[in-house]
Amino acid sequence: MDRPLQIVFRDIQHSEALAKLIEERVQRLEHIYAHIIGCRVVAGASHRGPRNTVAPLALCVEVEVPGRPLIVAKSEAKRKGQQNTLVHRVFDAVQRQLEQLAEIIKGNVKRHENGIESGVVVRLFPEQDHGFVEVKGGPDLYFSRSCVMRGSFDNLKIGAMVHFTRAAAEGVMGPQASAVYVLEQRETGRDKAARPAGALEPIVTGA
Q1: Do 21 and 95 lie in a common domain?
Q2: Residue range 137-194, pLDDT digits in tens
Q3: Which of 31-40, 85-94, 164-173, 195-204 has the lowest mean pLDDT?
Q4: Which domain holds residue 126?
Q5: In total, how many domains does the chain have?
Q6: pLDDT at 116 over 60
Q7: Pick from 3, 120, 160, 193: CA 20 to 30 A from residue 66's CA?
Q8: Is residue 76 located within the same domain as residue 121?
Q9: Residue that is last in its domain, among 91, 110, 129
């Protein structure tokens, strides 16, 4: 990474074990995506627990890559003692986004037999009920609100990863999608990753 990893413990006690697990997951991201500018991880209390009890952990991960919107994933543990599960769940969501983005940039997105492709939302016009998906090697693909078959058009954001199928014919806006599916956050494997030589030391702070 261009900048050292930043880990912030907010309203909770510093944990070496948690910081180490976060470092390991960030190292794995660096193996997946060639150029990560920086990563900031905030661990804190969810503030959802009853009074006079220790609230479960909440985690937010922000990853910055060149020329793309900030990649953000966050979640909260349902109860105490699930901090490792929470870390893996949040980082799995970030990892999936980086994997999809790497495929698009490298031009390795393959069309499946059923015609489904992958892309990134690059423009949105909510007041006009449409947007555009970036497709490697071709013009941006138009889609309308009614094309969003899984997920919500209103919740779409620039940089969101989507699957789509192309319409057989072009419309007045050019190439268009017949269906758009917002990618769900799915968990992946948890294989271990070694720290790369020369990796920057993380910055761990309290807030």
Answers
A1: yes
A2: 788 999 998 888 767 888 888 888 888 888 888 888 889 988 888 875 333 343 334 3
A3: 195-204
A4: 116-182
A5: 2
A6: yes
A7: 193
A8: no
A9: 110
Q: Are 48 and 31 in contact (CB under 8 A)?
A: no
- 165 and 99 co-located in one domain: no
Q: Is the pTM of this model over 0.90?
A: no
My answer on whether 120 and 143 are in the same domain is yes
- Token duo for residue 203: 């910055």
Is the pLDDT higher at 131 or at 108? Answer: 131
**Measured between alpha carbons, how far is 151 from 74 in angstroms, rounded to an integer?**
18
Amino acid (one-letter) located at 152: S
In this structure, is residue 190 part of a structural domain?
A: no
